[in-house]
Amino acid sequence: MPEGTGENTKAATTGGGPLLAVRGLSKHFEIRERGFFKKVVGHVRAVDDVSFEVQPGETLGLVGESGSGKTTVARCILRAMRPTTGEVIFRRADGVKVDLAKLEDRALKALRPQMQMIFQDPFSSLNPRMTVGQIVGEPLVIHGLTRRAEIDARVADVLRKVGLKPDHQARYPHAFSGGQRQRIGIARALIMRPSLIIADEATSALDVSVQAQVLNLLKDLQAELRLTYVFVAHNLNVVRHFCDRVAVMYAGRVVELGRTTEMFANPQHPYTRALLAAVPWPDPDVKMNFDVPGEIADPTKLPAGCSFHPRCPHCFAPCRTDSPVLRDWHGDGSLAACHLHDPKYASGGERVAK
Amino acid sequence: MNANDPQRTDAVLSVENLRTHFMADDGTALPAVDGVTFSIGRGRTLALVGESGCGKSVTSFSILRLIQRPGRIVGGHVRLRSAREGEIDITSLPENSPLLRHVRGGLVSMIFQEPMTALSPVHTVGSQIAEVILLHRGVTKAEARQQAIEMLRKVGIAAPERRFDQFPHEMSGGMRQRVMIAMALVCRPELLVADEPTTALDVTIQAQILGLIRSLQREIGCSVLLITHDLGVVAQASDDVAVMYLGRIVEHGRVRDVLKRPLHPYTQGLLNSIPSLAPATRLESIPGTVPALTAVPRGCPFHPRCPHARAGLCDMGEAPPLRELEAGHQTACLRAEEVLAAGATEVTHA
Q1: What rounded mean pLDDT belongs to chain A?
Q2: Are A39 and A20 within 8 A, CB to CB?
Q3: How far is A237 from chain B (nearest CA, A)?
Q4: Choosing among A209, A248, A259, which should be mutated to test the B contact, i.e. which has the most B CBs within 10 A?
């Protein structure tokens, strides 16, 4: 690892602590008027004050509906876009913690091998004019490996790891099925031996039987290579199966954060409850709720106070004015951003039954 | 009674041995739908479920004769038993016949996965709904407008008078799907074909749309053919289910029977692939991939991927037909009795 990133170095530690710590992350987009001057007329707060940590070897799920900001968070972490404010503290392989949000491009490029992304659509994320060998081996070339034999050996090795054959190297993506293409995408992400993988809807485009194969593969690879995943998904079935902890996002904010098993058994935030109740479980004995009120909040005109309040069945006065803070209200490690849990309003509205 | 009997008289739609093939450039025929038989009882919802390429959408398009070249219906019948018009063999109607036009949109209507591509972007949503009314009912423009506004209100669109004059791009995805439903149901069809109606929607909006289809179905008393890949949607929103694999129905029955006690190894594999069990559990996925339609395996098309396949039985001869193993519950598995006896079929969900 090259030196020269010292200005961003937080503290040199050896092991311990989270692999990734996101603190107060915000990403605002400008809305410009049409016309010559394109004056800024407003902002979309796509991500607003998001904080969470991811421990090494852990899988954190980032769930939410369209426009919740989950993909924007993922992109800000990998610096595919620059956050407006906030810190993204990443622990390098040598134990040094750096703030990715403020890193300049050269230092960032040197760090890229350690954090990789798996994309949703295996059809549009692979270049149809490149062979599988070129696609998977490209990161090695970009990062300065030139010896053909070594590149071929590493590509063959990683293809084997993801369940493809080394002699698939010479073929083009069109010769593969959706599940196999997703394996190619995983191989490309793994070839630089990263510690952090951001999977953005990595199995959403796949059929359920293929999805099961890819989820199994990701679990095996995690155990074998000690990978840490941030798993962006909207399918709560998959999240429940795959993630250790879950952050639920709504309108750019994390509204609930906790261990998966506890959250699914006892959701704290009314939005999480609505979300879980609306999931069609493949069991005729578990009835889903068809009466979820309202539309998903429009990020260009968010309501005052809690963004969920117009749809919330428990809404009371402070919800319309004060934005709730994400906090562990009951000392059990489950965080929720909801006034119903705030002892300050204990006598106020109807409280969520624990 | 055999729930799948195409001759049963309470069925609003009977599909009999439907075969829709696509002709490849080199002259080979791809059997996208190859001998599909099912019927839908009046007022009931049948889900047609399967993975990409199984032929579920081709089946639904065939019902309305919407298959375009190089695809062609090469065999079978689609019979509509209309309460208003009597029995109609849709497959035998000439193209451009007035009756076929009346069937499409009047007696049978369809909603699609992506409302943005199914709605015209240059016409207001109101005019698109009114057009359907003008086409199928002899009313004046003013009456059509009034009925369209009433229908928009019924599908849960607030301020329908104002929304009438809006364009699809001014609406959210859920709102557009409501418009599609308004358009499909405004002429009170006897059958609604819904092809993945909620796949593009978020889960809370999906719940609203499924609820809306259900309540309107009750109100106008129509039957629904629901095309989906999601066994969750099947469990929650339909009465009967037919599971498709490689252009054939491999299992058919009431939802509870099929999901709780699947009689075909493919259905069992699909259910085991759903990640709804405890987080630590490894998913039991189906090995291998769906073969191409150019190379459909001999015998039972599922046998190369089937854990119960037996050489000399499952890999021989024609594809096995559906047979009724339990009352109203059919499977195309030759070894269903042994599979059932092996006790590998009880599916439980956490």
Answers
A1: 89
A2: no
A3: 5
A4: A209
